[in-house]
Amino acid sequence: MIKGDIILKARKEQSLLRFHPWVFSGAIGGQVNFQEGDFVRVVAASGQILGYGHFTPNTSIAVRLTHFGNEEPSENWIRERLQSAYDLREQIGLADNPNTNTYRLVHAEGDLLPGLIIDHYDGVFVIQAHSSGMYQLRHKISEALQEIYGNRCKAVFDKSAETLAKSKLVAENGYLFGSSPETHQAKENGLEFRIDWEGGQKTGFFIDQRESRKLLGEMSKGKSVLNTFSYTGGFSLYALQSGATKVHSLDSSARALEIANENAALNGYSDRHDIIQADAVQYLKNLGEEYDIIVLDPPAFAKHLSARHQAVQGYKRINSLAMRQMKPGGLLFTFSCSQAVDKQLFNSTIVAAAIEAGRKVRILHQLHQPADHPVSAFHPEGEYLKGLVVRVD
Ligand code: SAH
Q1: Residues spanned by CATH 2.30.130.10 within the chain?
Q2: Is 5 in the pocket of ligand 1 (CB under 6 A)?
Q3: Digits of tens for pLDDT over the chain (393 positions)?
Q4: Is residue 102 in contact with ligand 1, taking CB distance under 6 Å?
Q5: Is CATH 3.90.1200.10 the right assignment for the domain spanning 77-186?
Q6: What is the C-alpha to C-alpha distance for residues 27 and 14, in angstroms, rounded to an integer?
Q7: Percentages helix, strand, coil for the chain, rounded to the nearest 5?
Q8: Which of 74, 75, 129, 177 is 20–30 Å from 367 (CA)?
Q9: What pTM was estimated for this model as a whole?
Q10: For a substitution probing ligand 1, which of 231, 237, 295, 315 has the most ligand atoms within 8 Å of its CB?
């Protein structure tokens, strides 16, 4: 299983000794002759064994460590890690919850499984590998899921074609176990959602906003709500459920909005819900109507550190546009899922947006990803989602 050693340059072992799981290509000394996805041992220049992990050529993160120190990986390590991920979901009340059968089972580094995302939708598992090493383990992963969940496991769908678009190893998405069920549906806090894991964005649903959506629900009674970047209407449904007078879901994707409409119908709220297909920035610029609550949940503006400055400008712009149009006393739920924009930078960006809009703003809540998206204390990069609820006066 272990293909050989990768030797680091002198003094490049420090972060690995602190359990940060990435080896950057610049830290490697000498020639490396491994194949994409190989499982390798990482050794310091001094000869000290630092750990084991998956190798990826021609990228900045050359090895993602799954094991630290000289503890040799067991034959069954992937099964053991998945079991431990399951145990955590059980501990936080998600594994067997009649109201919520939608949760993230594996959050990469946060579950000691770098390069792997698994989302669970009522017995259907959607796998996205972000490393070829994890991709090569997909059948083992699928078998382990069947063992852990028994007959609660209905299907396992591999959706790595997009996340590993550059890899030569990945052909197309498909079922590793079971087949496409008749209904593609799951529950979150008692609401029914249609989830298109085969054709939708990412794994089909943005599970990471579950708790923020619930909070919005608690504040929406009797209010008018504009949900921009709505995707399939996650936030909209919570607002409708709690008695919002009208809710508009705005997205650039016609397909996402079609499902948002289906979701409103599925839960019996069509009469108070409308969709708007538009570019959010253009729409906010010309907003003629006033809302009590606006949600801004854009896709990641900065995928890399190099794009950070531009991303900040983008966040400032949409937030100041939204604030400018808010009814006095209105609430803005604003988010960033860019890893490269941290909590502090996001907060300062919102302050800058308020200054630009000429509005007084108070922070009511600081939001982040829920517990089924755990963050390793040694890998702070895992904390990617941040949000603020602000009152705009
Ligand atoms: N809030 C959603 C998730 C949002 S994901 C939820 O709770 O499920 C980001 C969404 O932004 C995607 O649906 C994408 O189609 C949409 N999007 C991307 N660029 C956009 C733009 N310029 N204008 C409007 N929507 C956009």
Answers
A1: 2-68
A2: no
A3: 899 999 999 999 999 999 999 999 999 997 889 999 999 999 999 999 999 999 999 999 999 999 999 888 999 999 999 999 999 999 999 999 999 999 999 999 999 999 999 999 999 999 999 999 999 999 999 999 999 999 999 999 999 999 999 898 887 999 999 999 999 999 999 999 999 999 999 999 999 999 999 999 999 999 999 999 999 999 999 999 999 999 999 999 999 999 999 999 999 999 999 999 999 999 999 987 789 999 999 999 988 888 899 999 999 999 999 999 999 999 999 999 999 999 999 999 999 999 999 999 999 999 999 999 999 999 999 999 999 999 999
A4: no
A5: no
A6: 11
A7: 35, 25, 40
A8: 129
A9: 0.97
A10: 231
Relative to the CA of 213, which ligand 1 atom is closest? 7
- Ligand 1 contacts CB of residue 314 (under 6 A): no
The dotted CATH code for 206-392 is 3.40.50.150
Q: What superfamily does domain 2-68 belong to in CATH?
A: PUA domain (2.30.130.10)
Q: What are 280's two structure tokens?
A: 């959010």
- What gap in Å lies between CA 44 and CA 212, rounded to an integer? 43
The answer to whether residues 54 and 38 touch, using CB atoms and an 8 Å cutoff, is yes
Exposure string of 164-188, with b = 16+ CB inside 10 Å and e = fewer, is beebeebeebeebbbeeeeebbbbb
Tokens of 268: 């019996």
**Beta strands of the chain (E only): which ranges?**
2-7, 22-24, 39-43, 49-55, 61-68, 102-107, 116-121, 124-129, 155-158, 174-177, 185-188, 191-194, 224-228, 246-251, 273-277, 293-296, 330-336, 361-368, 386-392
263/328 Cα distance (integer angstroms): 31
Ranges of CATH 3.40.50.150 domains, the chain: 206-392
What positions carry a catalytic annotation? 337
Q: Which atom of ligand 1 is nearest to the CA of 227?
A: 1
Using DSSP bridges, classify how beta strands 102-107 and 61-68 pair: parallel, antiparallel or unpaired.
unpaired
